[in-house]
Specification:
- With 79 residues, the protein is mainly alpha-helical.
- The protein has one domain (1-57).
- The protein is 38% helix and 0% strand.
Length: 79
Amino acid sequence: MEHIPERIDSTFRYVLVAAKRAEQLLRGARPKVETAVTKPTRVAMREISTELIDWDYGPMPQPEPVEPEGEVGEEEASI
């Protein structure tokens, strides 16, 4: 198994990032490392272990508005 960089907080996150990168490679992205390995998953793992792949958690999810209890919505009122 390749070395997991310290900024990746878990093995699960490592697998997610590697899978996403392998998908990009399958769709035609150029590898960022020179290697004899041809499997996209192994290339992605090598790229991550050498810290050539930037990733982040993405934007924080926005909370959904909550309707107060006791109010009847339009759909419920027509029944």
